Structures are given as structure tokens and as C-alpha cells.
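Hi Y.,

Following your request, here is the sequence exactly as I used it, all 753 residues.
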Amino acid sequence: MTVSIEIKGNLAKLLATEDLIIEHKPVETASFDVDRRVLTLPVWDRASETVYDMLVAHEVGHALYTPNREWFFEPEWKTIPLDYVNVVEDARIERLIKQRYRGLNRDFKNGYNELHNDDLFELSGQNVNHLKPIDKINLYFKIGGYIDIEFNDTENEFVTRISKCQTFDEVLVISKEIHEYTKEMQEQMQKQANAEQKESEAQDNGKVESRPDMSESNDNTQAQKDEQETDTQGQGDQEQEEPVQGRSDKSFPDEVDDTEQEQKQEEIKNSGDTQGGEFGDINTATTQRSLDESIEDLTNTYKDQVPTQYVTIPNMVLDKVVIDFNTIKTYLDEHFVKENTTESSNKFLIEHTRRFNEFKKSSNKEVNYLVKEFEMKKSADSYSRQATAKTGMLDTSKLHTYMYNEDIFKKVTTIPDGKNHGLIFVLDWSGSMNNILEDTLKQLFQLVWFCKKTQIPYEVYAFTNDSWQLNKKCDEDQPYTSYRNTSSDLLVDAWKENEINIDGCFRMVNILSSKARTKDVEKQMLNLWLTNCSFKYHYNHHFPHPAKFHLSGTPLNEAIICTKQLVKQMMKKIQKVHVVILTDGEAHQPSYNVDRSKLHDGFGLDHKGTRSINSTCMLRNRKSGKTYGLTYSNCSLKLIECIKDDLPNVSFIAFRVVERGGMRYVWTQYGMDTYPDYEVMKEQVKKGNLSLTLNSYDKFFMIPQHHLSVDSDQLEQVEEGASKGEVSKAFRKMFKNKKTNKFMLSEFAKAIA
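Below is the corresponding structure, written out as C-alpha cells. Let me know if you'd prefer a different format.
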């Protein structure tokens, strides 16, 4: 049957009443790391629901009550066989966990009965009363209610003491005494067996001497008969009487009976039957080993599977990761003043400053439209939450209607206060954004102006792995690589094994902030506009771009991880936070920390390495215990799901720019749940429906690259003297893009209202 390992993991955490780390791996037996508090459970895929619950409860019992103690190295206890301690300790911890949770009595009873019916103890054909004392004790505490087990007085005393055992020290004492008692029984049975063997050999020797020589000729036989006939006195000595008794037709059957008896004794000896004179190996609990081997078979499906690797989200040190608004603004201010040294550079600044001001002016309509949509959605939501109730006070204006109207009491309408919102924008500052960065900034600026008009707090961050120089003191004349630190523990509170690796060059640059003065924000918007132009028009105007704020790779996963702490920081004053991610692609392949000293003997003890995340990895939410299956392509989505489970008052909205010919790829990555048929999604995109709903992103907007432009620049591309058809085409394209933009802004307003 199918068992949810996530549910069983939560069951283990609840039973333990602590924040245990539960790991399900294709291992043969369960284990518990006392120091790390990690309970590793096999995936018992062939076990029933009842048996699975029993096995989980059993392992939690060990986690709660079995101490982390290497008793087998202690001189007083090192002679005790491990099986003995395991049997007695199992009885103790199962009794304690059942006392703590009375409902588990049924699970243990039914679970062990199911294992017994399947003969996992391998008792078929055996007399349980002839087993070793430790085996009988093991069966008594596991399936004693289903079979009859006989104990002598000494064994009964052991059972009583185990039933009352409270500490692990008592377990060791009782286990040692049971082992010593078993050795004494073994010695006594061995002596008894030796004595019986000697007696049997003596009898056999006597029979051999008295048996006739069956190889004699018929003449000799006839001579013996004649001799007996001539003995008329009826007397003879003992030596003559015994051959007479031995001469019978049962001579051969006697030999066969002796052989069968020896074989029977050998079989009894091998089966551990005490009637055979010995137990066999007294240092093992046969029934427990049979059960352990049988339980291992319950994981048969996963025996050849690669072990699951659990990874977790690290805690970043924001002071090291985030480059504050004033730092980046000061750097860009100085850059555009310092580099404005020629007529060409001055012309560059004048031209693109003019373009920025024109865009700002033309954006008023879109921003006002977005504000209107937001206020409408907010009012509708407020109206839907209002409640009307009677006050219990008479309404004097209705008293005259009391004879025909029962509703003469005053009413009050209560409108719950709405939650105050905050926005965190995360902008992709990667090299692939070069050709579309200007249009993306236009979208971003419109959203920022919207926040300003609606008085919504906001922060805008650009994620990059090439701006680490902005918060690191270094000499400009030094080689680039001499101070570039990629250490994986540079930005986290502490390096931990199996945490997602954070590149030491990763930074979140706070390019815009509602905390700054309006004048500074507008100046910084112009700086960003000019920065983009220095990338886009570099070969035309030769204006140097900011070297410390250059376009880089795509550390999207690191940015998502960082937003968790940024959201917590904003939520100190804000109830609801929306994270808006603007990007044109996916993150680079993530990795997790490994201690290579455990993998290769040649490395030092402190060697820190990484391994790529793949389909054998699971992301674990340390707080809830929930796990998320990872692949190379879905890591960003699962990180968002994990963060949202921790922070229920946060939503994620994506603006995904789709390059030409890339719509099918976006469909395979994100759209198959919403649109199982690609052609259907393609038709919806043509109609302007550009949003998807995912488990991770609350809203996922697909923006075709050619729809990004939201101003009237397209009309400027129409040459003088163009035909009527060309002008008409330019107008249709412009209004189509405006229509698409309005739809997207409307959906955005609905998502955050």
C-alpha cells in the first residue's frame, strides 16, 4: 500500500514532542543521531499502515529514552551480547512510549500480530518453550498475547523485572544476568548430554560384543544349534546367555533405530531445542534477528535506490549581503559626474535624461489606471468583509412601526481593518537582461510610482554576483581576482553541512527604497536609467558603464533565499508582504555544502566542498518538517513554497520576460498545470491572457519580449512618407502593447489589493 512518508515524519515529530529532524532514506534499519537530533527512517514501502505506525513509534521510543552511550566499551558490560541488550531495551522503550501515548497499545498489538501471522519471527515448526530464555522473553513482550510461553521461576523473575524496568542501567544489569543464567543452563545441559552420550555409548558397546557374527557359514550356525541341543542341564554363564538374547530378528532394526535417534538429536540440537541438550549459539537472540531481517525486506523496493540527501535553507547575514541604498546611489552619482569629461559623454547624458523625463511624463496614465484598479479592488474586498449586526438599542425613528415591524433596533455595520501591505521588488541584474533592461526598468518605475501614490512601503533590490566590490574595501590597482572572495561561509551565520551553498560574491543591491527622500529616489531612477543606457548604447556614445555595478550571472536562488529574511525584516511593521520578481530566465544550478573529509581520506578535517543539487535531493523545512522534491529546474519554485509555508502572509508574483521562440520552454517549466495543451496557452497569450497560477508563485505573468514597450516610441520608428498601412500597423502594435500592459497591471492590482 502507499504510505505518505511526510505524514509519518510528522507523526514521529508529534510523538517525540520536539523538533526532530526526520529523514526517510533507502536504508535497511532506522537510526538516531542523538547529537544532531536526526531520526533516519527506512522507507517501509511494503509495510501496512499499522505496521508502519508501530515501527515509527518504536524508533521514536529509542529517540526519547535510549541514551547516547557506548556501553559496549565499558569494562563492566562489554561481555554482554548486543542481542540481549536490544531485546530488553526494546521491551523497556516500547512500554514507556505506550504509557505516554495510550493509543499506541493497539498499534503495537495489531502490528506485532500481523508480523507473527506472516511468520516474520520464523517460529513455524518450533516449540517456543524449547527456545533460549532471551528468545522466550523477546516473544513474550512482542506477541505474548497470541502464543503460550512457559517460564520457570527464574525466568518469571526476569520477566517481572523487565516489566518494571525504568533506566538503561537496569537494562544492562538484567541483560547481563540473563546471559549468565543462559550460560549456566547451557553448561548443565552440556554435562547432562555428555553423561547421556557416555551411557548410550556404553550400552552400544555391550550390544556390539553380544551380537553374533552374521557372516558365519550355515555349517557354523548348525553346529551352534547342535551345541544348544546337547546342553541338557539348562545352565550357562552370563557370556552364554547374552548371545542367546542377542539372537533375534530385531538385530538390524536395533541398529537402524540407533541411527535415527542420533539424527533426531542432531536436528533438535541445530533447532535450538533444549531437549537436545544445548541451545546452540547463546550469544544471539534468534527470534530478534529473524524479525530484523524480515523488517529489512519491507524496504525491498528501495534497496538499490541512491540515498536521499536532505538540504536546508541557510540564514544569511544581511549586513554582508545587502548593499544599502545610500552606498549604491553615492557610487552612481560620482560615476556619472566623474566620467562626464568629453563632449560626447555630456551629449549622452543630456539625450538620455530627456528620454527619461519623457517616459516619466507619459507613464502618468498607466500609473493612475493602476491606482484606480487597486482602490476599486480594495474597496470591493472591504465591502465583502463588512458585517451588520443589531445593537440591542431601540431605534426611535422606527418605534411607530412596532405593531407591524419586528426590526425596531439600531444596527451597526463593522468594517474590519484591512491589512497594511508592503512590496519587495527583486530585479534580475544579469547579462541576458541587457537588451530588455530598459523596458523592464520602465515596468519597475511604473510600479514604484504606483507604490508612492498609494503610500505602500517598498524596497527594490537588484540581485547580482558582480557587485561585491561595493561593500568591500579594496585597492583599485589590485588584480580583480586578488580580492574576489567566493567562500561559501562568507555570507551566512555559520557554515553547515547540507545547507544550500551561497556564493561569496552574491549581493542584493538596494537600488530604490521608500525610506529615502523623494528627491533622492527620483535621482536614483535617473542613475539607473543612465546605467542601462551605458550598457545598451556603449558602442555608440562610448560612455563608460559603472564597473562595480556591472551585469552579471543569475543568482536567482540565492535572491529568493535572501528574501525570506528581508520579508521578516519588513514584517516588523507590515502585515502583508508581496515579493515581485522581474527576470528573463532561470537560476544557475544550485549546490549544497559537503564535508569532503567524510568522503575522501586525503582531505583535511576542515575541508569544505559542494555538490550539485539533483533529483536525489530533498529540500527540508526545518520548522515544519515538510520536504520538497528537488530537480535541477524546479529549485526556485520549491524554495518559494518552503518560504511561503514558513511565512503565510507573504505572496510571490513573477514577471517573466519571454524571449522570441521561448514560449514553449516557459510552458514546459511553468504552464503545464494551468494549460495541459500548449496550443491552448498559445491562443490565450494571443488574446492577452498572460498569467499563470502555480503552487509557488501566486501570480506568474508571462511577458513576451516584444510586448514590453509601453510608450509611443514605436510611432517614432515610422519613417516620413510611410504608407497608410505601415502607420496603421504601428498604431495597432502600440495599442496592443498598451492593452497587454493594462491587463497585466489590473491583475497585479488584484493580486495585492
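The chain has a mean pLDDT of 77.

Thanks again,
Q.
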